[in-house]
TrEMBL record:
<feature type="domain" description="HTH cro/C1-type">
    <location>
        <begin position="16"/>
        <end position="70"/>
    </location>
</feature>
<dbReference type="InterPro" id="IPR043917">
    <property type="entry name" value="DUF5753"/>
</dbReference>
<dbReference type="GO" id="GO:0003677">
    <property type="term" value="F:DNA binding"/>
</dbReference>
<dbReference type="InterPro" id="IPR010982">
    <property type="entry name" value="Lambda_DNA-bd_dom_sf"/>
</dbReference>
<protein>
    <submittedName>
        <fullName>Helix-turn-helix domain-containing protein</fullName>
    </submittedName>
</protein>
<dbReference type="InterPro" id="IPR001387">
    <property type="entry name" value="Cro/C1-type_HTH"/>
</dbReference>
<dbReference type="Pfam" id="PF19054">
    <property type="entry name" value="DUF5753"/>
</dbReference>
<dbReference type="Pfam" id="PF13560">
    <property type="entry name" value="HTH_31"/>
</dbReference>
Length: 286
């Protein structure tokens, strides 16, 4: 099991290598300090294999790292649940979920905030079970009922981040097409739109609708997600979904570009209050 996206493993490895070098230790000496073989330290430092949070704690202790913020950042890179107190429940589904999806759930579970543009379907964190079933059936070709049940179960389990203490702060811009695309039939869609209105009233959720009347906008190139993490922007990441894989962008210039794009979309979208009214009106007509 690889802990987190490959780019984050490489970043963790590079940071650990720099910390080891700062102490003047060789990789072999570091390995002996923590009771490992030298090859394990090398694999972690090159990002070839993941490092469990317990492994990272051992290395940080060996390197004399006591800065709380630095330790927290390193543990987040390792996929630690220390910050939000959420366990890695998705590991139980690793035989069903592809690695890219597990990576996404890992980021989602550790993040403190999530900004997303959705252009086709309701965000997974706000889907009803019946809407999620209809979307999954359409997206996963030839899925059998048992696997479909499991994928819907995972989709609903992900929503616990909105009820955690503290909860994930979700800000979503929805293209009007999300509201107009009938998924699962008119009754399923009507109930889904009512769920959106209920969710939009939660203090940790901010929904804005980008109406067709807004015309062409920067989001026409496709949906994206920006994850933010507590105490540091160094771990923020943009996720772009493709049919068979996901792309993770962590360069400062990429993050700035997508943050600016999201802010522009919010300006052109309806206000949260207007958006909830618009969603409710759309649901009444569904």
């Amino acid at each position: 099991m690889q802990h987190g996206p490959a780019v984050r493993r490489r970043k963790l490895g590079a940071e650990l290598r720099a910390l080891r070098a700062r102490t003047g230790l060789t990789s072999g000496e570091a390995a002996r300090l923590v009771g490992w073989h030298q090859s394990k330290v090398s694999r972690i430092e090159t990002g070839t294999s993941g490092a469990k949070p317990a492994d990272v704690r051992l290395l940080l202790d060996a390197y004399g790292v006591d800065d709380p913020q630095l330790r927290e950042m390193m543990l987040l890179l390792a996929g630690s649940d220390d910050g939000a107190g959420r366990d890695h429940w998705w590991h139980a589904y690793r035989g069903v979920l592809p690695p890219a999806y597990r990576d996404f759930i890992s980021l989602e579970s550790q993040a403190t905030a999530m900004r997303t543009l959705e252009t086709t379907v309701v965000p997974g964190l706000l889907q009803t079970a019946e809407y999620a079933r209809a979307v999954t059936r359409a997206a996963v070709e030839g899925v059998d009922e048992d696997r479909l049940d499991t994928l819907v179960e995972v989709r609903l389990a992900r929503q616990d981040v909105l009820r955690a203490d503290p909860p994930l702060v979700l800000s979503a811009v929805l293209d009007e097409a999300v509201l107009r695309r009938e998924v699962g039939g008119p009754e399923v869609m009507a109930r889904q739109l009512r769920r959106l209105v209920e969710a939009g009233r939660l203090p940790q959720v901010r929904l804005q609708v980008l109406p067709f009347a807004a015309g062409a906008h920067i989001g026409v190139t496709g949906p994206f997600v920006i994850f933010s993490f507590s105490n540091t922007s160094d771990l923020d990441v943009v996720v772009l979904d493709h049919l068979t894989s996901s792309l993770h962008l962590e360069r400062k210039e990429d993050l700035e570009a997508y943050t600016e794009a999201f802010n522009a979309l919010r300006i052109h979208a309806l206000s949260p209050e207007e958006s909830l009214e618009y969603i409710a009106a759309t649901g009444d007509g569904a």
